């Protein structure tokens, strides 16, 4: 990881990503935080064997069932979706694949360039370190590096990686950035209608319930509507 934030983080990410096939090192933008040096405090990494043994649909079904067993939100927030409007019932299965001919890596490069000039919640320019993780792809990189940003939802990051791998196949999603509890993905083939977006929204709820509980959308329909045509997905685990 770079010792300090990098001025041209987006351009550097693009260059390093193009070298990934030869280097075996997947680049990730790592959000700088003045208040905590979170980059060197990750959990113990897991092995490739653990990842290979985790099926994407089984992973999402497991997370879904865990949420159905715990119907109480963790926060008392007026923006939460009411409990009786949470996605519920038996696991609905995976959402259909996205469509379109956009190139996933071109979309990822555009998003990396965008994040370079992005602002945080306080409208301050984000600053990024560059990390290199020995991994086949961004989905597996999180677990192999020991990233623990989902610990308030699950410590089984292999489930998160499996879901990301599936989104990579179905929606052209690519891991671009990480924070201590945040994940930035580019998405080449997002849903294009509400029915498809609702199916994707249920997966998002399974993957990161805080996106719905505290995302400012008071119904899942409104959350799904925001996903239509959206070429970037952001997740935050409170």
End-to-end C-alpha gap: 25 Å
Query: What is the total domain count?
Result: 1
Strand order of the largest sheet: 2-1-3-4-5
Q: Averaged pLDDT, please?
A: 88
Give the tally of β-strands: 5
Low-confidence stretches: none
| SSE order | HHEHHHEHHEEHHHE
Strand content: 5-15%
Helix share bin = 25-40%
The value of Rg in angstroms is 17 Å
Structural class: alpha+beta
Q: Can you count the helices?
A: 10
Biggest sheet features: 5 strands, mixed
Shape: globular
Summarize the helices and strands and which ones pair or pack.
Blueprint: H1 9-18, H2 20-23, E1 25-31, H3 48-52, H4 56-68, H5 104-116, E2 128-134, H6 138-145, H7 157-171, E3 173-178, E4 182-187, H8 194-207, H9 210-213, H10 220-227, E5 232-236
Parallel strand pairs: 1-3
Antiparallel strand pairs: 1-2, 3-4, 4-5
Helix pairs in contact: 1-5, 4-7, 4-8, 6-7, 8-10
Summarize the structure.
The chain is of the alpha+beta class and 238 residues long. Helices cover 39% and strands 13% of the residues. It has helices spanning 9-18, 20-23, 48-52, 56-68, 104-116, 138-145, 157-171, 194-207, 210-213, 220-227, and strands at 25-31, 128-134, 173-178, 182-187, 232-236.
